[in-house]
Amino acid sequence: MTRSARALLVDDAGRLVLIKRTKPGRPPYWTTPGGRVEPCDASIEAALHRELMEELGATAALLGQVHVVPPTPAHPTRQHVFLARLLTVDPALRCGPELTDGHTPERVPLDLLHTVDLRPPELVAVARAAGPRAAG
Predict the structure, then answer these.
(1) How many domains does the chain have?
(2) More confident residue, 45 or 133
(3) For 81-110, b where at least 16 C-beta lie within 10 A, e where not — what string?
(4) Rounded CA gap, 136 and 131, in Å?
(5) What is the DSSP letter of 13?
(6) Is residue 66 very low, low, confident or very high in pLDDT (cuts 50, 70, 90)?
(7) pLDDT in tens, 28-37
(8) pTM beyond 0.85
(9) Enclosing domain of residue 29
(10) CATH number of the domain within which 31 lies
């Protein structure tokens, strides 16, 4: 089974760091940073650290897994969702394929998550419940 690691990544201002996805002919939507667990990754957590660096140029303190999104026919990957606190970010360190295909990092206050199309939508409730723990 394919697995991915995703982060509900909260910055020091209590905002969720998301990736805005834009595709021609479709309205924008937002996702949490993260991606597929690769064979070279020592663990799901290691995959998440790698993905955060690739997508955001970020380091984070992982505070634990808070949710699992089961696979569906439309998205056949088991997504392990971790709560994380953003430690550092340097966009110059971004190195993933996301740099060229409509991925834009954005910070969204937890109380304004209802204003964006976060996918999967169940993560809105998970982020609102868990996010304040990461804000410190």
Answers:
(1) 1
(2) 45
(3) bbbbbbeebeeeebebebeeeebebeebeb
(4) 9
(5) T
(6) very high
(7) 999 999 999 9
(8) yes
(9) 3-135
(10) 3.90.79.10
